[in-house]
Design brief:
By secondary structure, the protein is mainly beta. 0% of the residues lie in helices and 50% in strands. The strands form two sheets. Strands 2, 4, 5, 6, 9, 10 and 11 form a seven-stranded mixed beta sheet that branches. Strands 1-3-8-7 form a four-stranded antiparallel beta sheet, with no helix packed on it.
Amino acid sequence: QVQLVESGGRLVQAGDSLRLSCVVSVRTFSTNAMGWFRQAPGKEREFVATISGMGFSTYYADSVKGRFTISRDNAKNTVYLQMNSLKPEDTAVYYCNAVRGGLSVAAPVFGTWGQGTQVTVSS
């Protein structure tokens, strides 16, 4: 039984910054690599960023590399996504999940997803 709660999304203008949070209820949180995903209307869910269990390694999609930073606080069972220089194409519902298969593979582990948090970037 796992619970994923994403928050922090809102309407912003292009060039603005946002910090998303994901609180995860799982006993072995520190042993799980975690990832952020997003889904825009009419499109499939796509990988955004991943981070290793202890936070020592990260991996990013080319579309966000250099602009987004993923981090985690295992004492709080929380994963963060700092988003800078936001663009209209970043508009989507953002989700978090545990991942497996390597950080660049980013295969979701939990079958149940959270409600996600909406990020809307106006031009």
